[in-house]
Structure to design on (163 residues):
């Protein structure tokens, strides 16, 4: 390798390192919510496990716009404007992302057995608050999401416990 090639390579590496150091660091926030459900996990999950059930929880619309409902790869559109991709599914949970979200938004809905007649319902959100302007805006956003999804969890609990 010639001196000129080494110099070009070194300059390229230096430029890449310079760009990497100026990139903003992520500021990931987790909102973890849970409630106890007075039903066995399998009974409760059968009532709230549909990928588009969120429409009822949020009292809005939800339609599958791509893929098959409840299968990894399905895309749901909430309120006619928010697209979410189903990225993982187990017997008692699923996770989704908002692929075009500037805050790298993800959520997981899960139910866990507690005992023969009770289960724990969990809703976890993870997102990057870095794009939000100030520490106050970040705190207000987290508080807003926690309040909204606490209501969602209460709605889910009511549906799961209904006879």
């Amino acid at each position: 390798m010639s001196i000129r090639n080494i110099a070009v390579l070194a300059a390229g590496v230096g430029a890449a390192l310079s760009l990497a150091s100026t990139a903003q660091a992520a500021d990931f926030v987790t909102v973890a919510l849970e409630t106890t459900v007075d039903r066995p996990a399998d009974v409760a999950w059968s009532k709230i496990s549909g990928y588009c059930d969120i429409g009822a929880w949020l009292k809005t619309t939800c339609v599958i716009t791509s893929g098959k409902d409840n299968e990894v790869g399905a895309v749901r559109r909430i309120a006619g404007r928010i697209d979410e991709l189903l990225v993982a599914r187990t017997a008692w949970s699923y996770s989704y992302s908002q692929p075009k979200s500037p805050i790298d938004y993800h959520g997981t809905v899960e139910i866990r057995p507690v005992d023969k007649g009770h289960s724990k319902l969990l809703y976890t959100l993870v997102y990057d608050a870095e794009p939000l302007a100030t520490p106050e805006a970040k705190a207000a956003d987290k508080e807003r999401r926690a309040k909204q999804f606490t209501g969602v969890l209460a709605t889910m609990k009511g549906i799961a416990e209904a006879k």
Residues 26-49+90-161 form a domain with the Alpha-D-Glucose-1,6-Bisphosphate; Chain A, domain 4 fold (CATH 3.30.530.20).
